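[Q] Does anyone have a clean structure-token version of this?
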Amino acid sequence: MNFLKINKNILILAILIGFLTLIFGSYIGEDTLGGAKYDYLFHEKFIISFYQNFNEALNEFGENYEVRNSPVFFMIASFVLKFGVELDYLKYLNLIIILLIIIFFVKSINLKFQNLSITSITLLTSIIFLSPTLRSLTAWPYPLLYAICFFQISIFYFLKFQKKDTNKKLKYCLLNVFFLALSAYFTPNFAVFSIFFLFYFLKNYRLSKESLLIISANLILSLPAIYFIIIKDFYLFRHETEYVISNYSIYDTLNISNKIIIISSILFFFFIPLIEFKKIKIKTFFQFNFLILSFLILNIYFYNFSSGLGGGFFYHLSNIFFEGPFLLFVIFIFSIFLFKAYELFNFNNISLFILLIFYNIQTTIYFKYYDPIVFFMILFLFKFKENLMLNHISKKYFFFYLFFLIISFGKKFIVY
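[A] Here you go.
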């Protein structure tokens, strides 16, 4: 009993230390993402405009197509200013959002995985404090932080839906829908994941009044956003489209192969701590078939990703050492065969991958949109042939993210 209490105290101590590092990072303006400060300073004017004249700011929002975000975050931030909180101190309120992420992350871990040691929970929870995205967006307030928080809460209620008895399933469905809608109101990209959750809800209820209620809840919650986007002449899409057309070719804008190759490399990046080569049968890598070969060749042939649009870790590593996409292509090919070796090609996982493409429908592919949500999805949404042995891999994930954070500090030396 005393040993259990000591371990819980270690978890609490780890969280306290983590919060202290976030406070320090916010104080010095930490930006391990490399662009968080720029994004905040660019969008700061919207917070101020809503604070000075709410109605005028709402009427003018999106009219010049200079923003691809929802106005919700800027509206809420302006209300906070009205309570006397200075703009420079807004970042410290983000600590509340981090706390919510931690609470629902730990609750999700306990719900999904049984008999997990306190040490493993501590290591996995500490990853939240090591995420370059969460750290940077805490120091430089941005809607994505809030979207990640509500997305994690929606995952928790999806797990409750999967675990609990029939009498409470509908309640958890509706809570999932509600929090995912909140996530999408902060960052519209997250709306695509409603398709994933809705499939499982409708599969459970089939043709029933519960299904009708769930569909109605999705529609009702989406109507204000749809109406706003329509009256603003679809500013979410026009902002980047006009920018891209003036600087790049339309081929760059519509090139799906760019997304498939780069997003595959990003998935592989977060998959690294799970790799155990002794469990992989070498012959799997030589089991070529026409479908896989065609998929690989076609995507490599049509790949044409322009510099300055993001790209992720392996994209930049490839440019640094090979001055081109050679390493990226190698990682793409290896990732496909690795996922095949781990038998990850199932309906659930392929659906998530497709949604990750539509989640990042814009031409730019920034790593911040995948950290840490891919980590959350690997733990809670992806389907593996065997259950994840988190007691075994938690230490690997911790040191992987620690390394990730360290190299992120050098991001300013990478040319985008």
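[Q] Thanks! Anything notable?
[A] Residues 241-245 have pLDDT under 50 and may be disordered.
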